[in-house]
Write a structure and sequence with these properties.
By secondary structure, the chain is α/β, with parallel strands linked by helices. It is built from 8 helices and 8 strands; from the N terminus they run H-E-E-H-H-E-H-H-E-H-E-H-E-E-E-H. The two termini are about 45 Å apart.
Length: about 270
């Protein structure tokens, strides 16, 4: 008999235990209740819906032109380029192709922009990764919140490069191409069952092909229900300033700021 079972033993509903009120405080799957050995119908339907939303996020098309236009409208030049993953199926089955620029796109970037050494302190790349809705919804907002602060510090910022069907390591090649000190990749994360549109921000100092994940920093779970874009921008700003000043990134660079203190409890 389940812990949730009532007198008769077969059917349970959340409500006889203290967990259901707590479930309202988190999107995590807690206090689902049980019907015998199974989930309740309501919980099963909710799980199926979230799974469908996650699949849709992976397969959704990415409107790179619209994203570039939104970033440009906020005052930052943005261009669209292509990876070597020519379609969604290839993108999913060949992650290596999403890590490299298409030759024509690479030649176009070199021809159209200043790629001389140290012409830029940072280049920002936006890609759908595994969630186009995440990149479309949150990347422009994060760029608007972050880039003005970097510019105010005197950073030389390359045009934002928007790339459909890219992977994290694509920033290594684009960063090297622009001879930038840092490459920052804003990428749609693999969807979860409660967060189909979550953005990740990855950066590496001295980008070049062959960099490892241990050499990157990541600020993840960027969406209104997780880390809002404005808060993510504040964290990235601190980390990027440290990376530039100290010439490091990855496991050598930690966010060791003093965490905010909770206010003391009210008397009584």
């Amino acid at each position: 008999m389940s812990d949730d079972a009532g007198p008769g033993g077969a059917v349970t509903q959340p409500g006889s235990r203290p967990w259901p009120p707590l479930a309202g405080l988190t999107p995590a799957r807690v206090a689902l209740g049980r019907a015998g050995d199974s989930l309740t119908t309501a919980a099963l339907l909710a799980l199926s819906l979230d799974h469908a939303r996650a699949r849709d996020a992976v397969l959704a098309p990415f409107d790179a032109v619209a994203v570039a236009e939104r970033i440009t409208a906020s005052g930052w030049p943005a261009v669209v380029a292509e990876s070597q993953a020519t379609d969604r199926r290839t993108h999913l089955l060949r992650p290596d192709l999403g890590r490299r620029l298409a030759p024509a796109a690479r030649a176009r970037l070199v021809a159209d922009h200043d790629t001389s050494r140290r012409a830029h302190d940072i280049v920002c790349i936006v890609s759908d990764g595994l969630s186009a809705p995440a990149a479309e919804a949150h990347a422009p907002a994060l760029a608007r919140a972050l880039l003005p602060s970097l510019a105010a510090d005197g950073w030389r910022i390359a045009p934002v490069v928007v790339v459909p069907r890219g992977r994290v390591a694509l920033g290594d090649e684009i960063g090297e191409l622009f001879a930038a000190r840092l490459a920052l990749v804003l990428l749609g994360e693999r969807p979860g069952l409660t967060a189909p549109a979550s953005l990740g921000a990855y950066f590496v100092h001295d980008p070049r092909p062959g960099r490892t994940d241990a050499e990157r920093n990541c600020v993840s779970n960027i969406h209104p229900g997780g880390l809002p874009p404005a808060a993510a921008a504040a964290t990235l700003l601190w980390l990027l300033r440290e990376a530039r000043a100290r010439g490091i990134s990855g496991v050598a660079l930690k966010d060791d700021r003093e965490p905010p203190r909770l206010p003391p409890p009210a008397p009584g």
